[in-house]
Amino acid sequence: MKPEVIAICGYIGSGKSQVAAILRQWGYKTVDCDELAREIADDPDVVRQASELLGEGYVVDGKLNRPLIRRRVFADSDLLGKYQSLFFDKVRARLQETAEQSDGVLFAEVSVWDAFDFPWHSVWRVVSDRSNLLERVQKRDGVSAKNVEEILFRQKPCDSAAYTIVNDGSLAELEASVREALKRSLSEPR
Fold it and tell me: What homologous superfamily is domain 4-185 in, according to CATH?
């Protein structure tokens, strides 16, 4: 049987991880493509390629200096594309492997919507008011509003979503929205 993978997409700070956490509480399996990319970032070959692209100062003790890289690449769209291309094919391959090893439905948090093509069963878009996005990311990551705005400017929206989940209210409201999207997605033809 073909694995059913539902994408959870949205801008940084929209609440993709919160939606995934709710699904895990309900017994569903989730995978975070950012986490896959972080694992791939430890690959010595990827570290070498990133060092060649950005310079040695972006690698500390054999590891990528993610906060420093983040500030640099999100300020330069050409450099961002080159940096991200080090990861996309590897993330897609790992996602496919995870899906093939999963029973039932797998939910995938996808931050970079245009990173790669994938045969999604369904796509959920998590949205939130821009002021909430800025506040959440600044608090979570300890970065400036300018840095968050640069990231938001570079992110491609997932306009092809079948379901939109609004994350501007209470946890109970978010859970109700997730429950509705889940009910509708799982009733779709397979």
Answer: P-loop containing nucleotide triphosphate hydrolases (3.40.50.300)
